Amino acid sequence: MYNARLIIAGIVLFLVLVTYPLWIGLVPGEGKKPPKLELPVGQKECVMPVEYMKENHMKLLVQWRDEVVREGDRTPVTVKGVKYEKSLSGTCFKCHVKKTTFCDRCHDYLSVSPPCWECHYTPREKK
Amino acid sequence: MSLNRKDFLKKAFKTGLLLFGGSSLFEVVAAGELVKQKGPEAARSIQWAMLVDIPRCLEAGECVDCIAACDRTHNVPHIANKKHEIKWIWKEKYENSFPEQTYEYIREDIGKGEVMMLCNHCGDPPCVRVCPTHATWRRKDGIVMMDMHRCIGCRYCMAACPYGSRSFNWSDPRKFIPEKAINPGYPTRTKGVVEKCSFCNERIDIGLIPACVEACREKALVFGDINDPGSNVRKLLQKRFAIRRKPSLGTEPHVYYMI
């Protein structure tokens, strides 16, 4: 085999580069850690269990949206005797006051950009 | 059993009709039965309507309380460029609003005056018919609704609406609303969606009347269920003569103008 060294080195380099997205996640480093979210102060209850909200808050919001906009059904959601309005800015933002340290941190980490805020208003935060 | 070509085609046609045309054929044949079933339900349904008292509104002169209240409630931007204007409720010259109901020697206060315009919440809305994404539709209570989440900004509805009640967001409307004036309880819109008066569905759903009706000090705007014979709008329509915009188009507008 001619140029065995070069060829084998080339193949190894190629494989390393091609599998980059697969192994890079295993290498520890800054920016890899899940983001720390600022949780609401003095409020322990959410409309759903935390685990459900982490994975499915978008589904819940879409369900609320469809019920309110498409069906005009604004009956409040009752959880443990407390009534919650089906509203992003009216309910979620009462507790999760800061978008930048809650919503954005996780969305940025996962590289998703939901267009909710283009219309739904969140008050400008003081720095 | 042998089938000749003619018999085969006949049978195939009948089977096809049964399979694919079954339900619609049934509706044609038994339409009377269906109407009977739906009848009482239809009679009980709500149809919101608005009455505009033109003389009373004109007496108020330069008053724009209704417009201000609507704009405040729904974050309607004020854009100087007429081509990019966003309108929910606005003033229009009588001669432009009722072009087929005007003539040279018309009563001057009305004929040369301005009347309030808004979405007519048609009984047979052409905008709904053309919307390719069902972003606009007619609710059970007669409100012609917009779902901004579904609007793709194709503007078919604007072309279809004979009343010019719809506006397109050519740019981000938030730039045109002062930060302090924003009502956080109602979403602003975004670039590329069509918007219009919604008869304040968000207020009706919680038992309030539209913001413009509430704001009108002259009581020149009246709102109610036109399907209810005992409602304020029905009673008023028996007392006062009212006209509608472009009735010949058959869109069944539900904004009535009392002369």
Q: Which keywords apply here?
A:
heterodimer, A: 127 residues, mainly alpha, two-stranded antiparallel ribbon, 44% helix, B: 259 residues, alpha+beta, Alpha-Beta Plaits, 2 domains, 4-stranded mixed beta sheet
In words, what does this structure look like?
The complex is a heterodimer of chains A (127) and B (259). In chain A, strands 1-2 form a two-stranded antiparallel sheet. Chain A is built from five helices and two strands. Chain A has helices spanning 4-18, 20-23, 50-70, 88-95, 103-110; strands at 77-79, 82-84. The model of chain A has no long low-confidence stretch (mean pLDDT 89). Chain B has two domains: 5-39, no CATH class; 49-258, 2-Layer Sandwich (Alpha-Beta Plaits). Chain B is built from twelve helices and ten strands. Chain B has helices spanning 5-20, 22-29, 31-44, 54-59, 65-74, 94-97, 108-111, 126-130, 156-160, 201-204, 211-215, 232-239; strands spanning 48-53, 89-93, 114-118, 136-138, 144-146, 167-168, 194-195, 221-225, 242-243, 255-258. In chain B, the strands form four sheets. Chain B has a four-stranded mixed beta sheet. In chain B, strands 2-3 form a two-stranded antiparallel ribbon. A two-stranded antiparallel sheet of chain B has the order 4-5. Chain B is globular and about 85 Å long. The model of chain B is unreliable at 38-43 (pLDDT under 50). Classes of the chains: A mainly alpha (127), B alpha+beta (259). Chain A binds chain B through residues 65, 69-70, 72, 74, 89-90, 115, 118-124, and chain B through 75, 139, 141, 145, 147-149, 172, 179, 182, 184-185, 187-191, 201-202, 205-206.
